[in-house]
Amino acid sequence: MRRNGCGRPAPTPAPMPQPVAPCQPAAEPVCCDDNAEYDELNGMPLAMAYVPWQEWRNLYEAEKGFHKGTIFEELDKPFKGMGMGGCCR
Asked: Which InterPro entries does the entry link to (predicted)?
């Protein structure tokens, strides 16, 4: 038994912690990858969209239309934030 300078037994050193491999999380799909393996819509049939013709009615004056980003009052849909949809969930 080792003794320190004052005659008492030297304290037993604490065991050194062993390095632990960091925990690796399971790879999760990234929503914007081009990898079809994680595409939830892969293999589903394509759809055909229908977009009606824009009617020339309820027009803003040029200056107001420039400020709003459209001359069509019907298309003036201000952005209200991320309340609905979007990639970030």
From this structure: Spore_coat_CotJA (IPR020256)
**Residue 10 phi, psi dihedral angles, 5° rounding:** -70, 140
**60 lies in a domain?**
yes
Q: Which residues contact 73 (CB under 8 A, 6 or more apart)?
A: 58, 59, 60
For residue 75, give every residue at least 6 positions away whose Cβ sits within 8 Å of its Cβ, in sequence order, or none.
54
Q: What is the full per-residue pLDDT of the chain (89 aa) written as tens digits?
A: 555 566 667 777 777 777 766 666 656 555 555 555 667 777 778 888 888 888 889 999 999 999 999 999 998 988 877 665 555 54
CB-based contact 65:75 (threshold 8 Å): no
Assess if residue 83 is contained within a domain: no
Q: pTM for this structure?
A: 0.35
* Number of separate domains in the chain: 1
**By residue range, what is the domain housing residue 59?**
51-76
